[in-house]
Amino acid sequence: MKAKSLLGAAVVGVAGVAVRDLTQKKQSLKRNFPVIAHARYFLEKIGPELRQYIISSNDAERPFSRDQRSWVYASAKLENNYTGFGTDNDVENTEGYVVIKHRTFAGPAPSTAVAHGADDDVWLPGAKVLGGPRGRRQAFRPNSIVNISGMSFGSLSGPAIEGLNKGAKLAGALHNTGEGALSDHHRHGGDIVFQIGTAYFGCRDEQGRFDMARLKDLVQSAPVRAIEVKLSQGAKPGLGGLLPAAKITEEISRIRGIPMGVDCASPSRHAEFHDVDSMLDFVERVADETGLPVGIKSAVGEPEFWDELANRMQDRSRGVDFITIDGGEGGTGAAPLVFTDTVALPFRIAFARVYCTFARAGLTDDITFIGSGKLGLPDNALVALALGADLLNVAREPMMALGCIQAQKCHTDRCPTGVATQDRWLAHGLDPELKSVRVANYLRTLRRDLLKVSEACGVAHPGLIDADCVEFLDGNRTGTPLRDVYSYEPGWGALSASCSVEITDLMQAPPAHS
């Protein structure tokens, strides 16, 4: 009797759905194929999950393949991240496949402890002193060549930001705030790079204008080591940021100084300066007032900006201390599809063009170059270093260390792992204490892998890997040196002689506290 009742209820339910489908006019598929059309919409909805876990090969997915995600997850958990039975990459037929050229007899022998993970914390500082060439009062050498890129509180949950900051502290890395200001979640001991965006969150007055006094108060209230002026980012270059009203909590409203209940749209341009000349004045004013190194972050489009910046810096009276180049493949910011897919150059082309501009002007020793845009994977990181990057900023990979599963729901406030959401129920599932350890493990593992490869190449530090150490393959036919691919002249992409000696000496006798 009970079974008949359930069957009857099911029939009535299906009939009700059929009637609704036949009478509605919004979706022709449902009207033509009542009930069964719902299966199509269900499969469409779970399509990403089907492809991610069942259908796709290890190297098929974008932006991060299953192999790449697995490497990050294993590294974060200190599990075995080795692979067996050879590469499953299509080396024989892939155009542009990257190969790092090792050396048989040269330089330091690879450390067995480092190579096999016995040394849990590899000390791998930056090769340049940030702010040193311009004599900033608080110039410093970054303790880690790998650091956490800008991701704002608001875009990411409080527990996620806390996990990142604590992880940065454990690994001795820098943590960039992103443009969403400096929250309580950033104040867990990790060294901070404070990012100034176009809306001046955290350092603005009641009218939304930049306020130097508030900036000085802010940087004195936390371990802020440098300031980054964001001109644009790879995910949405030339487009201001947008924080949906649904993600604006009272806490975010207080920290940013914005109203509740409406979308928070950042301007696409800065109001404090309007050209290269006024931008350099702004940079010098901020550096003088705070004593901190000050740099810029930008995606790369038209070259005139970079040409003029290099020209105006040549007399060395004014200048940026660092330049962060964000590739067009950058992805932590939600953006319109056309911006995500087609606006701004991808990292390698973008970085090479900017680096060459300053190399021709003889200014590369004056600037710390920072690469950003999917550089948290060892092969991509090594190409960036060979191109001339001095530091690496990573974002999506630490998000995966926090638990991100590449659900690609960052823009919906429905992130299932609590990383990119302000939903309290979803965010509560992320334990910042546990995840901070995984973030630190990931950063340390990436540093260790970079050191493994640099020693295999016969140098003491990955910053000494230059444009002659990398080739791009055209299947099994030819290999073209990186130097030729990007038209680098002799010496470009390499550290100066004095900087090379200094970092080699440091690596041979690291400080006791490392």
Give short descriptive properties of this protein.
alpha/beta, TIM Barrel, three-stranded antiparallel β-sheet, 38% helix
Provide a descriptive summary of the structure in words.
It holds the Pfam family Glu_synthase. 38% of the residues lie in helices and 11% in strands. It is of the alpha/beta class. The protein folds into two domains: 1-55, no CATH class; 97-508, TIM Barrel. The model has no long low-confidence stretch (mean pLDDT 87).
Summarize the structure.
One of its GO terms (molecular function) is glutamate synthase activity. InterPro entries: Aldolase_TIM, GltB, Glu_synthdom. With 514 residues, the chain is an alpha/beta fold.
What is the radius of gyration? 25 Å
The major sheet is characterized as:
8 strands, parallel
Q: Tell me the CATH architecture of the largest domain.
A: Alpha-Beta Barrel
Give the tally of structural domains: 2
Q: How helix-rich are the residues, as a percent range?
A: 25-40%
Outline type: globular
Strand order of the largest sheet: 2-11-10-9-8-5-4-3
CATH topology-level name of the largest domain: TIM Barrel
With helices defined by DSSP (H or I, 4 residues minimum), what is the helix count? 19
Secondary structure category: alpha/beta
Strand content: 5-15%
| CATH class placement of the largest domain | Alpha Beta
Report mean pLDDT, rounded to a whole number. 87
pLDDT < 50 stretches: none
C-alpha end-to-end distance = 74 Å
